[in-house]
Amino acid sequence: MRNILGKGVCDPHIRIFDGRAYMYASHDFSDNNNDFVMKDWWVWSSNNLVDWQLESVISPEDTYLCGPSNGCWATDAVRKNDLYYWYFSDVREGIKQIGVLVSENPTKDWRDPLKKPLISSDDFDEGYDPAIFQEEDGSSYLVFGAFDYYISKLSNDMISLAEEPRKIEIISPRGPYGESTDDKAFLHKRGKFYYLSWGCFYAMAENVYGPYEYKGVIVREDLVEEDFKKYTWPNGLTQGRHGSFFEWNNQEYFTYCDMSQGLGNRYYRDSWISYVNYRENGEIEPIVINSVGVGRYEPDRGKILACNYFKSTNTKKVECHKGFAVQLNDGESCLAFPNITSNQCFKGLKIDVIVECELHCNVTINVHSNSGSETIIKSICIDDCFEGDIEITFDNPLNIDSVELHFSGECMLGMKIFSLSFI
Questions:
Q1: How far is it, in rounded angstroms, from Cα 315 to Cα 376?
Q2: Nearest CA to 103 among 22, 36, 183, 19?
């Protein structure tokens, strides 16, 4: 995440608007902090999740506070009715509440329509850390709270509640402190399941209001690169991972706080992103945390997993006996891997294919590399017993900076792509 590391960007929420990623984040003020000192909020944007630019700084003076604050905690933003709504935590001595701003722009020109909190400390002791969930029909919900979470449907105007907030029931919760949750909840949906998460812990339900059943934690030590274990919070790798889930270009991600790449100060954090895979039963596979991150690829490290694509069309990720693969659908399918970095030229490409089909597949693979400047076309016929590498040799050795795999043919539903590697 270029341009972000080392700047104290934390509590990231990433939203996708018009083909661009926007990160709404808190901001740890100084690497000398000995407490949570957060004087403003930041909005960053990216078109590839690798290169980020600071779009704007939102100050507490821009809100009903009308003055400075050290408690500019977690924030979130959504779009509805052609407007952008930005929700923020207001944390001061004896006060923990939520406000809302609105704009015609995702990054600037915010105005405070209420001139007061949306969620007040008069009603909730822990009324902070907002997260917004939107159903496909446009219905929007506010989730907030610490340890005990509350949910309320928002009115169509997005600046008032359509109902009294309800406490969310979680069955057998766990967290970094034991048999409890944490602060900074987030809610997202995939298929028929709703996922309520607090950091890297999560629970599932089939109703937005719950009850939610605790399922597990998505950070596992053996999947974390050694450099990311260097600095952790007192309770280890699963503590302090405030963040959010998002989907873009048919790929799922988790963005979260991480203190390992900075100075080891828990009050001056960074943000990071990992790919997310879901098992067939809906549960979340533990994520990989490494220095490659997302949206970029280092073939010198070995195989690139197909499920870690940046963009795909007409495909879906599925479990297989090797882990996770990309299943092709009938018709034209595509997988894109941009931002490839290497110090060597490659003479070819190996694609690890798994075929599970009673019929013979007849599939054409078009390989586009170097942002479309070179095209290598290979036609292959794969029978139902084939499993292994398909090797495609380039006419000339290439210094690759991107690869797109285009698939077309017959019986493609039986074909899965597991990985690609350069030779």
A1: 21
A2: 22
Quick one: fold of 9-289? Tachylectin-2; Chain A (2.115.10)
Which one, of 389, 392, 382, lies nearest residue 415 by Cα?
382
pLDDT digits (tens, 9 = 90+) for 95-142: 999 999 999 999 999 999 999 999 999 999 999 999 999 999 999 999
The number of angstroms, rounded, from the C-alpha of 139 to the middle of its chain's C-alpha atoms is 22
Structure tokens at 270: 């960074």
Q: Is the pTM of this model over 0.85?
A: yes
How is the chain split into domains, by residue range?
A: 9-289, 300-422
Distance CA 144, CA 333 (A): 40
SS3 (DSSP) at 62: helix
Domains 9-289 and 300-422 alike in fold: no
The burial class, CB within 10 Å (0-12 / 13-18 / 19+), for 111 is: exposed
pLDDT bin (cut points 50, 70, 90) of residue 285 is: very high
Query: Domain spanning 300-422 has what CATH number?
Result: 2.60.120.260
Collapsing DSSP states into helix, strand and coil, what is residue 255? Answer: strand
**CA triple 56-59-63, angle to 5 deg:** 120
113: exposed, middle or buried (Cβ count in 10 Å: 0-12, 13-18, 19+): middle
Instruction: Say which DSSP state 365 is in.
Output: E
**∠ CA(183), CA(187), CA(188), 5° rounding?**
150
Both tokens of 219, joined, read 């950070």
Alpha-carbon span 411 to 423, nearest angstrom: 28
* Three-class SS state of 403: strand
